[in-house]
Amino acid sequence: MEATSDGDRPWQSYHTVYTNAKAGMEGVDKEKVQKIIYELSEGSKYFENEKRKEAIIKQKIDNLRTHHAKLTEKEITHFQRIADNRILELEASRDLSKIWLHIDMDAFYAAVATLENPSLKGKPLAVGSMSMICTASYEARKYGVRAAMPGFIACKLCPDLIFVPTNFEKYTYYSELTRNVFSKYDPDFIATSLDEAYLNITDTCSQRGIGCEEVAVELRNTIFQETGLTCSVGVAPNRMLAKVCSDINKPNGQFILPNDYNAVMTFISSLPIRKVGGIGKVSEQILRDVLGISTCADMLQKGAVLYALFHQCSTDFFLSVGLGLGGTDTPQQKMRKSISNERTFSATNDESILFQKLADIAETLSKDMQKECLLGRTLTLKLKTASFEVRTRATTLQKFVNSKEDILIYASKLLRAELPLSLRLMGLRMSHLDDDDKHSPLDPMQKTLTSFLTIGNVAPIADKSADFDASDIQLSVRDYVAVSYGNHAESLNECPKTRNKYESIEKISDVSSLFDHKGGVVASSSSSSRIIVEPYWVGGYICSQCGIEVPASFTEERRQHLDYHLADMLHKEECRSLLQSFPHKESGRKKQKYIPIDAFFVKGQKRF
Ligand code: DCP
Ligand code: MG
């Protein structure tokens, strides 16, 4: 933001999520929008939070620049060799045999509102309220109005703006209609939100002997016939590229990137990094300001320095972006098994209100779980404070649960440990799920204990890939990560959002959370005897803990997956301490310090 360094035009560097261009905002007078947003938000908590984040990022950029400047020729040569080898390996993994289609409904909530009330057609429309809007029609976007923007700012940008309230029943209804169509083209389609999905259309194309272009046109027509809504489609050899492509001809358009090496490399050579899912505002800023990287192709040129400055899994991701690689296999269904519900509301520190809201969320979550016959064992509480800091706290239960009462007991315990606090969002997520007919409630505890006894210490191996001390940047990045989640769809005003097991993520957020990994020891259970290292993504997509693959763009999936492992680690700590009371089982082991599980939920302690 650097608001003070720009003299009489401080808004010029005031880049917020509101000033990011979305489809349909190409001709917008960016400076005018920035000025209005700056003036209206100056002094607000949002403004303060943006300043705080900016200071953290600036510090990180300075540290990285210093580190960059200190790199010796020998180090550069060393990292260049690593980068060259990795590029060869990544290239060898290129799979051009699959055809992926990404579909994204156009101005979804606004389009549904217009369908229900045709008099709104062609008018500047915002869905939401004065405090927050969820989306805007393309007519409104011309004025700079966009999702996640407070309504009062939107009004200033577009005085004729019409507001309509949200209607989640309707969105779910239309979303179901679209999913019925998707399943005809790919029964294993991956829905990433109510209005977006990835379809592997390889089989459809070959079985029907038609090209992907024809499939895309037919699919869009069918969606329109079934729903009356338009959508945009991108087709490419992998999901990363397909998503980029679906945005190119929005609204009501499509873009096909052929399954051809030269076509992919040409496409990627001038693609701005920001267009790639997982590279958000912060990643873009860091890569640009530290290394002068602006296009995907630049990533390949800077491979050595990337390896020198960032953790291997981050750099692997960057290089794969530079090569135009992305997910081509359908992730295992198991990975999408988590269920959550969250609400945004006007910030309050009234504990009775907060506990009432928590009870409401627990009730919705419980109902959704029961509807899907799911039981869960890892409960995560997500909080967004009045100052926009996001915290997550997780606990692993001794048994699988899905009743409101059970969920509320543990959720309340997690919340109580954080209070007093003024909050604007709360959410509950249940992961580590199972079908309720598969296990008796006591099974998991038994299973964990047994596996511990047979496998022994399962702490993952610390990353030793780097002889680089990242301690200088680690703290600031951790802080940033804690505040960075949720720029996106979490800004709804009092609107419940339940994701089911088929909805893996709402939106892609920033891969900058990966930056923090060099030397990424996060939880030290006992400083002398044992170190727990947070699992990380080997090669950018393989979990270091269990080997399961989750593509980089599945940010929410990854978060849930890591939550699960972290909670599991904590649970194993408990088991380990229990075992210490049986010396004959522990002979030959070093004494472990018992860390009560509650210690990890102490106020202010961040695990993410
Ligand atoms: N949404 C939200 N809050 C956000 C972003 C989105 O509530 N910050 C909701 C409203 C959108 C829906 O999710 O209608 C789909 O999000 P998209 O990002 O796909 O946006 P749209 O479908 O509205 O527009 P586009 O045509 O750009 O896809
Ligand atoms: Mg959309």
Automatic annotation (TrEMBL):
Q: Which cofactor does it need?
A: Mg(2+)
Q: Which PANTHER family match?
A: DNA POLYMERASE KAPPA, DNA REPAIR POLYMERASE UMUC / TRANSFERASE FAMILY MEMBER
Among the GO molecular function terms of this UniProt record, one is: DNA-directed DNA polymerase activity
Recorded catalytic reaction(s): these are: DNA(n) + a 2'-deoxyribonucleoside 5'-triphosphate = DNA(n+1) + diphosphate
Q: Supply the name of the protein.
A: DNA polymerase kappa
Taxonomic superkingdom: Eukaryota
GO aspect biological process, one term:
DNA repair
Q: Which Gene3D superfamilies match?
A: 1.10.150.810, 3.30.70.270, 3.40.1170.60, DNA polymerase, Y-family, little finger domain
Q: What class of enzyme is it?
A: transferase
Could you tell me the keywords of this UniProt record? DNA damage, DNA repair, DNA replication, DNA-binding, DNA-directed DNA polymerase, Magnesium, Metal-binding, Mutator protein, Nucleotidyltransferase, Nucleus, Transferase, Zinc, Zinc-finger
Q: Which residues form the UmuC domain?
A: 100-280
Q: Which Enzyme Commission number(s) are on file for it?
A: 2.7.7.7
* Pfam families assigned to the protein according to its UniProt record, in alphabetical order: IMS (PF00817), IMS_C (PF11799), IMS_HHH (PF11798), zf_UBZ (PF18439)
Q: Which InterPro entries match?
A: DNA/RNA_pol_sf (IPR043502), DNA_pol_Y-fam_lit_finger_sf (IPR036775), DNA_pol_Y-fam_little_finger (IPR017961), DNA_polymerase-Y (IPR050116), DNApol_IV (IPR022880), PolY_HhH_motif (IPR024728), Rev_trsase/Diguanyl_cyclase (IPR043128), UBZ3 (IPR041298)
Localization (cell): Nucleus
Q: Would you tell me the Gene Ontology cellular component terms?
A: nucleus
Q: Which residues form the UBZ3-type domain?
A: 536-573
Task: Enumerate the PROSITE patterns for this protein.
Answer: UMUC (PS50173), ZF_UBZ3 (PS51907)
In the record, the note on similarity to other proteins reads:
Belongs to the DNA polymerase type-Y family.
